[in-house]
Structures are given as C-alpha cells and as structure tokens.
Amino acid sequence: MRKVQLDRIQPGATLAKPIFREDGNVLLGAGMALSERFIQRLSDLGVDIVYIEDELTAGIEPNETLRDETRRKATEAMHKLVTAQMSQNAALGRAARPELGRVFRSVFSEILNDVMTRDDVFAGLSQINTHDSYLFQHSINVAVLAGIIGIAKGYNRNQLEELGIGALLFDIGMTKVPRAILDKKGPLTAEERAVMQRHAADGYDLLRKEHDLSLLSAHCALQHHERYDGSGYPRGLRGGEIHEYAQIIAIADVFDALTSARSYRKRYTPSEAIEFLFAAGNTYFDLELVRLFCSHVSMYPVSTTVLLSTGQIGVVARNFQVAVHRPVIRVIREAGGGTPAEPYEIDLRDLLHVTIVREI
C-alpha cells in the first residue's frame, strides 16, 4: 500500500487502511472502492491523505505502533472524557470522571504494552481520522511518542505511567476553550489568544483535584507550553525549571501537531517537523531531548511516496533506526516516466549519491 494525498486520488482506488470517526468507530473500512462522492465527503471531513492498495507496492505495510483495538479503547476513553467535560452540565461533567486515574492508567498500560512488544523502539503512527477527531487522536499520539522517549531514557514503570497519563490528559484544559476559538481559521486576537493560553492552567486545575492522579501528571498540563529559553507560558519557566515529563510532552505535542492536518493549514511532512525541532533546540526545547526524540521518529514513514534525486518516484518500504534518512525505496516510476516491468527496491544506505528530494 502507499500513502497518497486525497486530491491525487482517482475514483475507483481501493482504500487500504480504514478511516475512523472521532469516537474511534470506523467511518470507511479497508477494501472500500473510493467513489467521487466518497472522496468529496472525506475532503469535507478534513481528511487530506489516505492509504490505497497498489500492485506495485503490494506487501508494504506502515509501521503502526498501536494495535487497532488499543487505539479504539483509548479513543473511546478520551471521547467520553472530553465530550463530558465540554458539556454545559457541570454535574454531568464531574459525574463522568470517576476514578480518572484508574481509567487512564489502564488505557496507557495497553499503549505501553503495544510499544514495548515492538522489536525496535521506533514510532509508527499511520491512522487516518476526520478533522473532528484531532483533539482525541492528538493526545493518544502524544502519549505514544512520549512513552517511546521515556523508554529510551530508561524510565521505570512508575515513571512511564506518570509520563503517559500526563501525556494523555495534558490538553484537557482545551475543553474549556470556546469552540469558536478552536475552529477559527484566521489569526487569533490578543483576547482570544489569552483565552486559549489559559488551557494550560485550566487543565492543571482539573487534574490536580483528582485524588488518584499523580501531581506530576497534572504538571504536564500546566507546563507543556513552557519553553527552554523562558519564552513560554503560563509561568515563563526556563531550562531545568520545566519538569522533564513536560519537556518530552512539549516536543511530542509540537511534532504531532505539525504533522497533522488542521483547518487553517496543511500538514507538515515528518522531515519538515524534525527540521523545525532541531532548529528550536536549546531555544524552545532541550537539544539533547530533541536528538533523542528524532532518533526514534522516521523522517520518511513506510508507505510514503517520495521523489528521488535521480528523477525516480518510489515508496518507502523499510526504515532503519540507525539511518532514519536512508530508507529502502520501492521504485514505482522511472526517471523517464515509465513504470518498471517488475517492482524493485533500492537501499539508500548503499547509494550515497541518491537522495530524497521531497515527499509527493
């Protein structure tokens, strides 16, 4: 299979991976033929990329860190919490959060088990969701990425749990931000920006009152917008004043936000997001944490279509943690525009004169 931008899809293409609703249920299942009507519907829902079946890329499967069932359960728990918290009925919102720590301890335990059963600690996040799913799926992705970094740092199980629950719930304060501000496509006014920035303190206030949640997990909500040089909010902390959990979550938050489609901009490629993180090293983020993070994230995820410096077009077939920028490429179009008689692969680790120009 290969990942393709929705505006490049021709009617009749076969969907290779399902697309999910905001509550974790399937919107369109794998094997579905994409009609012109379906393509337009997906565009209306904010979907900008899909995975399709392709004879030339048969056997190529994205490296998904989470099992579908694990993500479904996590999405269901997040959806229940967020929708209840956003309810105008304060009593309902409170009643829907009994034993918050127990619920999300169980959710993150399953996420962590999926991550730790992988042969390599290398992030793979390939699920496609509608625009309305962003708030739920973003927190799950941040928890996966943060958990991978926690494992790489050698955290024990209790530390991983504190980090992971903090990552799942770090943005819960966003439920207090008016929908009109969340969905605004243009720049925010100073007043709107002030309302938006209150979500960090609001999230902390919500979580610190939960008797079965670690206060360190609550501090992830409070500090995830602090920056290494002191330019963040709400307290302008700098360097080591920011808890390491919050620093890890901040990096994962920015990476996943940049590589996700939003109502007001297109998604950045993973390589572009990685470049941004390195440029922000020791300014927004601790450079050593950035290096550790980027060594566990693929610049060119499996199934990504790329243009090579030779003029060939190919699809990423395999990645290597020790050479994240030199994957194996399945060539699907030659430089002259012709299709190979038989699909073949080239290993960029062995062809140092060949580079990836860009994703397409």
From TrEMBL:
User: Which PANTHER family does its entry note?
Assistant: CYCLIC DI-GMP PHOSPHODIESTERASE PA4108, CYCLIC DI-GMP PHOSPHODIESTERASE PA4108-RELATED
What is this protein's record name? HD-GYP domain-containing protein
What the entry lists under SMART domains is as follows: HDc
InterPro entries in the record, alphabetically?
HD/PDEase_dom (IPR003607), HD_GYP_dom (IPR037522)
User: What are the HD-GYP domain coordinates in residue numbering?
Assistant: 113-309
Q: Which domain of life is it from?
A: Bacteria
Organism name: Paenibacillus albicereus
